[in-house]
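=== RUN LOG ===
request id: a7f3
mode: sequence -> structure
chains: 1
length: 314
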Amino acid sequence: MPTNLMAEVTQLFNILDQDSSGTLDVKEIKFFVRKVMGIADREESRNVARQLMTSIDKDGDHTLDVLEFAEGLAGLDFDSTSLEQFLEDAVSTAQAQTGIGAAKIAERAAEVFEHLDTDSSGTLGIKELKHFYRKIVGMSDKDQSRAAAIEMMEAMDLDHGHSLDLQEFTQGFQSMNQSKALAILANATKMITADNEKRIRKWAKGCFLHLDTDGSGTLGIKELKHFYRKIVGITDKVESRAAAVEFMKSMDSDNDHELTLEEFVGGFARMPRVKALSVLKNAKTVIEAVSGGAGASDTRGGGDGGGDGGDGGV
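=== RESULT ===
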């Protein structure tokens, strides 16, 4: 693959990598063959995708990293068009076919915003934007990163409040050139994915330990109802119980009607990261607020006896 085309290959790769995993799986390759290369026949597209995967998947893990993908593209026959023209057309087609545009930018911007908003204030200030440019974008020069942060603030701060809320942050990226915005956010989400996974596991463990008031090492339906009522904030008993039952079903891998720490943490780890982070950050805030105050016992699992405390199974 010519060096001067690797930027376009990477851009196309990032668009196709819709789960931001850093690799393309068989499903994403089939999408590329059908929707971007234009091979509409299912059987033919399946064969091309399989051939593409098997011929360039060097490590045999059934996924392609960006270098393997680039090697595969370099070996394709583009008939009358050049590789450069193919990549230009492929990027445009992929953006349109994935519907990646505003919706994808919004999804990725929300994850980046959630990561940067370490004080849970719901806004980002200059300090947090400088961190974005230094630690995530990779601008190590302090003056350069500060100038970039100020420029970003001025461009996105619609209400001139000297801070950015999620809507301003998202709209700022949506107003950029789509390819540029997606490239920045794709790289950012890859940078923060590992850190977010650690935060999810840490916060889920803290939440589990708070809910496990009897020290049994498991959570039952009563403790999950408490989680939804007192921490998530679903005050309606029927609704909170339904949520607890659904939660139990989705995480109870051994079907014993109890959740171990591993099941509880693993359940959150499998959720979409933005959703898991949002729920657990809120839970962390509530738990920290009550743990040090006189009213802490009011929000512990044992205080939620109620009229429906007899729910034993799911």
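=== NOTES ===
The longest helix spans residues 178-211.
Confidence is low (pLDDT under 50) at residues 293-314.
=== END ===
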